[in-house]
What we know:
Elements (H helix, E strand, L loop, with lengths): L4 E7 L1 E2 L2 E2 L3 H11 L4 E7 L6 E6 L4 E6 L7 H18 L2 E7 L1 H12 L3 E8 L10 H17 L2 E4 L2 H9 L7 E3 L21 E5 L6 H11 L9 E5 L5 H9 L7 E5 L3 H7 L5 E4 L14 H8 L4 E4 L4 H8 L2 E4 L3 H13 L1 H17 L2 H8 L5
Helix pairs in contact: 2-3, 3-4, 6-11, 9-12
Amino acid sequence: MRSKILLVSHFNYSKAGSIHGPVHTIGSYLTRQRIPYTYLGYPLYVGEKSIISRFNGIKETTKKFGGSLKLPLPIQSLYETINTLNFLRKYKNDLVVAVDPLNALATICAKKIGLVKKVIFYTVDYTPNRFSNKVINNLYHQIDRFCIRNADTVWNVSHRIVEKRREQGIPDSRNIYVPNAPSIKVGKPLPASKVDRFNIVMVTGITHSPAFSMVINAISELVEKFPKIKLSLIGAGSYEEELKRKVSNSKLRGHVEFLGQLEHEPLLGTLPKAGLGLAIYTSDYSWVNYGDSMKAREYLLSGLPTIITDVVSTGEDIKSYDAGFVVKPTKKAIQNAIAKLMQNKNVWENKRNNALKLAKDQDIDKILNRVFLPLI
């Protein structure tokens, strides 16, 4: 008989709906395995209700509850903790995968009073400075330390978080690397002959961010050398309409297409048509250093050589496999990497093959079969 499994996480959302994150990847894995589970999701921002979704091995049902009003952080955190405890009191579960310290805290407390048998604390991001308020930031890290000491297993989304957990005294037997990797079963790479090598795809929020400006400026200077170059932007943001006007009145006209915000399945169907992917991050936010780029993982799954900046942990895997270029977050570095892939088809094909190999080797189904299935 299968264990009762609960996934509990916060989630972000856009106009296209809930944004696909690590907890959704685990849910999709359980669905493919026909393993029943329940997902309890709390929105990060105002505008969306909490979600409870159940998969019984055959079909999935989802409903929303609560209001969209966002309370002050301490009150909101208390409300979510109490709600999770009440849920577990009503529906006891054998195994919980809790994403982020607050959700892990609630489920570990539930374990201590006999409502849960095992807790997996899944760290999908980490930063020394989560909050600007020193008191709240210190409390956050105290909760984090409590959770890693009391969870049965600690999953970490990046090698850098694994190393941080090791420094914090977590033994390797409980300190597990579970990246943002997708399943190769959802990948739809096209034959190389059907790919537009000069089409660059970038999944991004279209804002005035330094990263976005670097990309636009880099491509502007490549148009004359590579007249077939095209930038496909997937996403939306406050800068979108202004950028469209600027593009229509510049030499980038005809070289940039705006695909808007895409839901996850259409996104995975669009990426394979491109020739390379951009995952450009700057060090403006400390959590980026410990992160794992989901969009880069999905580029690799689609066979896209990936240009990624060295501030994010995913670059270490891309460099190890020679599946793209790991560059400094500068216009010149991004520009040079794009040019190398466009001017030499052999280099592009080699890195494309390596990208597919990396995606296959870090297939999330393979990883979860090893670290999750034995616990169920």
